[in-house]
Amino acid sequence: MPSKSTKAQASTLGASKTATREESPVPEANESKVAIDTNTLQAFSDIVKEVIKEENDSLREEIIRAVPPINTTLEEYGGKLRDHDQGLTELDTRLVAMEANYQELKDRYEKLQRKTDDLENRARRYNLRVLGVPEGLEQGNPTRFMAALLQEVFGGGLEKPPTLDRAHRAPAPKPPQGGRPRPFIVCFHYYQEKELIQSLAREKSRLAFRDGQLLIFPDFSADLTRRRTAFNEVKEILRKQEGVRYGLLYPARMRISFRGETKVFNSPEDVKGFIDSRFGKDK
């Protein structure tokens, strides 16, 4: 058991601690700390404001110094843009005039080309092309040879050899042995004799000559030949249709007669449209 003196000491110690806690100045310390923190924050705030003000002033001065050069540069570019705009306007005007001139020149060129082609074909109207004559048979005198050949091929259709101004092979390299012979271009002195030869050639289904076959065509220009050849596809279609009569007209038009109706077409596309409307698309 603890002695009475020990209990008295413990009691006295406890009372002393209680008195110490009651007499400790805690509120005064807290208030002092808050006051210090407030002063520190105020000072820090003032420093930050001063730094921000200095930075703003410095930035404002830099902006003020930078604006005039930028304005000068913008004015320069504005002037250049105005010059470019004026230049583009002038170019546009010149381009419009150039397009008009081009279209006029194009129309004139096409007109002159048609005239030139027409003149060329009129100059060839006395000519015929004869295909299938073996090389070397003319023996240096093609004009006399072709006159005799035509009389031989058409027999009784010609009372005498036709009068030829000239005859010659097409201007092309001589083919190798066994190759396709070059065609003959024959120029008749009389247009009527040339037409008679064409008529006799159409009447005969086959022109036999020395184990071969001759083909006779008008001597058209390359451009006109191309335009007339473009009708070959529709000619094949019309050939299969019953009751249809057709033929090519000069220079490159097709005449079709069907069920008492005759029409003339200027292009293969127009003929295809007629075929589709009359016979349907399944020919």
TrEMBL record:
Biased composition (Polar residues): 1-18
Gene3D superfamilies associated with the record: L1 transposable element, C-terminal domain, L1 transposable element, RRM domain
Region Disordered, residue ranges: 1-33, 160-180
Record flagged with keyword Coiled coil: yes
Recorded superkingdom: Eukaryota
Organism the protein comes from: Nothobranchius kuhntae
InterPro entries noted in UniProt: L1_C, Transposase_22
Gene: CR628385.1
Keyword Coiled coil: yes
Name of the molecule in the record: LINE-1 type transposase domain containing 1
Coiled coil: 88-129
Keywords: Coiled coil
PANTHER family listed in its UniProt record: L1 TRANSPOSABLE ELEMENT-RELATED (PTHR11505)
